[in-house]
Amino acid sequence: MSGALLQVEGLTAGYGAAPVLHEVDLTVQPGEIVAVLGANGAGKTTLLRTLSGLVKCTHGRVLLDGDDLAGTKVEHLVRRGIAHVPEGRGVVTELTVDENLRLGGLWRRDRADARVALDEVYDLFPSLAQRRTFAGHQLSGGERQMLALGRALIGRPRLLLLDEPSLGLAPKVTRHIMTLLRDLRARTGLAVLLVEQNVRSALSIADEGVVLALGRVVVRNRASVLRDDADLRHAYLGF
Amino acid sequence: MSEFIYLTFDGLSRGLVYAAFALALVLIWRAARIVNFAQGAMAVSAVYVAYSVTNATGSYWLGFAAALLAGLALGVTVERVVMRFVDHSSPLNGVVVALGLVLILQGVLGIVYGNEFLPFSTPFSRDAFEVGGVAMLSRYDLFVIAAVGSVVIALTLLFTRTAIGLRMRAAAFAPDVSRLLGVSVGGMLTLGWALAAAVGSLAGILVVPTELGVHPTAMDVVFVSAFAAAVVGGLDSPIGAVVGGLIVGVLLSYVSGYIDVTVAPMAVLALLVVVLLGRPGGLFSSSKARVA
Q: Which InterPro entries has this protein been placed in (chain B) (predicted)?
């Protein structure tokens, strides 16, 4: 599989002795949106946390552009073009909107482009522009999600690891975020590994779907196929 | 009336030292969620460095600079060599290790310098100016005000205006998220300890010459007052530490002046009880204070 942006091979990981993930394989091509689906406790969040190094893997490899990421520090991943927006929005609630966004660009050498990216995020999310000096804890759930997403974009990532962006959000806000991801991909070639419980909205924008059950990949297929396969939806996705 | 004015100024001057020391405690609490009970022993170690350098060179200012550098170095060492390896799943672990550090530092200082008070002079006169027959502040008090004031202003600018300050705050509030955004959280923690220990050393070198002199336990009583100041202000709030320090300083001064010196420690405890009954999180513990 040459040319893959992210390639995960036989990944086994977990907390303590009992692994949560078992031999997970998956691939993300440049500009591709891959949805990771599954019930609560299937290991979706652990998968993302392992990819970014917050959870240590016990077996298997994670390759970015063909390079093994083992030994890369968590804080260096962002320099390799990976942005991880963790579950629960990842906004630093004690800092203001502006501080959160600036934090997303502090690692960048190209100060000028970091400022341009900051303005782009405010253009993308006008409601954040109106609340620059608000603390994170004063924002609504939707605004926090936009802030976390916008902050990730300031690093101009090639791969976005997005954990449950629709969690606790109104359907309208979820649709807005999904549309935005699709536009970003079209415009910048951004690849997204999207972890979602909201299967419908995830599959509406994904190219590929991977279904996790009890830490194992049980189904991998085109998103369009998963959308139309009623038996599979009943068996693993509950609708 | 003249006694009241004198006691107030004296209290504010001492309170500034408590404020600086409380600020050091708050810095570490914010960065690492540890109450650094070793702060006093670390500060005394730095004061001994100043004592040696001043005796060797004859210059107070070289000793002063050496104490601040020693504080920075000690902060880095304690974090990198000791605290980093402590299991912080229970908050008591860090406290117990810090208490162990106190015993080690005071023991080593006692072996090297002896367990007696060594004289340490001030660079400026401690005789208070008189205005209209009322004693107010001494030159040394003005020096203390300038030194602590500059540190408070510098730290405020660091945390609110610089990229490093933003990183330090983010790393303290949300370590995982900060790492994902490229912040070296371990590095920020080390920096936090270094800054805190340097501020603690400053408090040490300011207060020790006004008391009996340098001794391995010279900062123990100051630590108690400063800890009370930090808790009164709300452990999370740098502004609270400064205000708490001034309150404790003035209170101690009034109680010592109007009642008796021996009652002063009890007054601090009474203050703690009253404040914690009314506002268990401390005076400046609102989320607004944390943001600022």
A: ABC_transp_permease, BCAA_transport_permease
Same structural domain, A209 and A229: yes
A212–chain B nearest CA distance, Å: 24
* Average of per-residue pLDDT across B263-287: 84
Nearest CA in chain A to B180: A75
Which range marks the domain in which residue B134 is found? Answer: 2-291
Whether pLDDT at B124 is above 90: no
Nearest beta carbon to residue B182 from set A90, A99, A107: A107
CB proximity list for A194: less than 8 A, separation 6 or greater: A33, A34, A35, A36, A162, A165, A181, A202, A205, A206
Among A78, A91, A106, beta carbon nearest to B166: A106
Distances (CA, A) of A81 to A11, A110, A157, A194: 21, 14, 4, 16
**What CATH number has the domain bearing residue B203?**
1.10.3470
What's the burial of B189, exposed, middle or buried (CB within 10 Å: 0-12/13-18/19+)?
Answer: buried
The chain B residue lying nearest A52, using CA atoms, is B180
Asked whether B95 and B114 are in contact (CB, 8 A), the reply is no
- State chain B's mean pLDDT as an integer: 91
Number of Cβ within a 10 Å radius of residue B256: 18
pLDDT at residue B72 tops 70: yes
Tokens of residue B4, six digits: 């009241």
Query: B166 and A99 in contact by Cβ < 8 A?
Result: yes
pLDDT in tens, B244-253: 999 999 999 9
**Percent of chain B with pLDDT strictly greater than 90:** 70
**In angstroms, rounded to a whole number, what is the distance separating the alpha carbons of residues A1 and A173?**
36
pLDDT digits (tens, 9 = 90+) for A164-176: 988 888 888 889 8
Residue B286 has pLDDT above 60, yes or no: no
| Of the partner residues A78, A83, A106, the one whose CB lies closest to the CB of residue B163 | A106
Write out the residue range of the structural domain in which residue A148 sits.
Answer: 90-156
Q: What is the pLDDT of residues A182-213, one digit of tens each?
A: 999 999 999 999 998 888 889 889 999 999 98
Asked whether residue A136 falls in the same domain as residue A162, the answer is: no
Q: Which of A51, A101, A106 to mutate to test the interface with B (most CBs of B within 10 A)?
A: A106
The whole-number pLDDT of residue A237 equals 67
Mapped onto helix, strand or coil, the DSSP state of residue B174 is coil
B123-151: average pLDDT: 86
B182–A84: do the CB atoms touch at under 8 Å? no
Work out how many domains chain A is built from and give that number. Answer: 2
> What's the CA gap between B131 and B104, in Å, rounded?
47
> Where would I find the H helices in chain B?
2-32, 39-57, 60-77, 91-113, 139-161, 163-173, 175-180, 185-207, 220-233, 238-254, 264-278, 287-291
